[in-house]
Amino acid sequence: MAAKIKKGDTVVVLTGRDKGKSGEVIQLFPSDNKALVRGVNLVRRHQKQTQTQEAGIVSKEAPIHLSNLAVADPKDGKATRVGFQVKEDGSKVRVAKRSGDLIDG
For 13-29, b where at least 16 C-beta lie within 10 A, e where not — what string? Predict the structure, then answer.
């Protein structure tokens, strides 16, 4: 099955403590069905000092399950479901069910 959420997409969080927040997908973990989203699901981690980084407590994004994410509609930025459409030239594109706009290309 084709991926409904891809790297670089703007997504909206549907559930959890970050409900309603949106951000860009930085990285996908298809085997775990999880994604890293910029500015969402921030956790604080204790960091050991290395040659390049200072010791201390740092905030970074933790993976969030794909079922808790929805693609943001290109028209109004609200959460939408994703459908697929085959164009005349045979290419398959993602379409927002909410507005009917193309999500990519």
Answer: beeeebeeebbebeebe
**pLDDT tier, 105 (very low <50, low <70, confident <90, very high otherwise):** low
Strand pairing report for 82-86 and 79-80:
unpaired
Q: What is the CATH number of domain 10-79?
A: 2.30.30.30
Tokens matching residue 88: 């005349």
Q: What is the pLDDT of residues 22-61, one digit of tens each?
A: 999 999 999 999 999 999 999 999 999 999 989 999 999 9
Question: Which burial class, exposed, middle or buried, applies to 35 when counting CB atoms under 10 A from its CB (0-12, 13-18, 19+)?
Answer: buried
* Domains of the chain, residue spans: 10-79
Query: What distances in angstroms separate CA 46 from CA 50, 63, 88, 101, one per listed residue?
Result: 13, 17, 53, 43
* Residue 1 confidence (pLDDT): 60
- pTM, two decimals, is 0.85
